[in-house]
Amino acid sequence: MQSLKTFSLWLIVALTLSSAAGCSSWVYRINIPQGNFLEQSDVDKLRVNMTREQVIYVLGKPIAENAFDNNTWRYVYSFNKGRSNEQYKSLVINFENEKLASISGDYEQPENFTTPLEQ
User: CB within 8 A of 25, min separation 6: which ones?
Assistant: First the structure.
């Protein structure tokens, strides 16, 4: 009889703890940055007609590349996803004939983006 009471008590404690673990407001979630973190100073180094290798040298390789459109690269960064202080930034880079043609997204276009690098 005593072992049944002990087992029941442990079962209740285990069920209570497992149900409490499902409450996301009680569980600490670590802030993990996702994607490519870019500074505006990095984006300012981009110039029209840069090769793919030059873009990779300046910004690094994008985390995810589009398998269906090799001419578009997306650099995406998110932090604190789903929270009130969520951060999200993206930069889209378009290539034409294996050369950098345009950029768009959450970063300002560099002042001298349209001035090609000296060859």
Answer: none
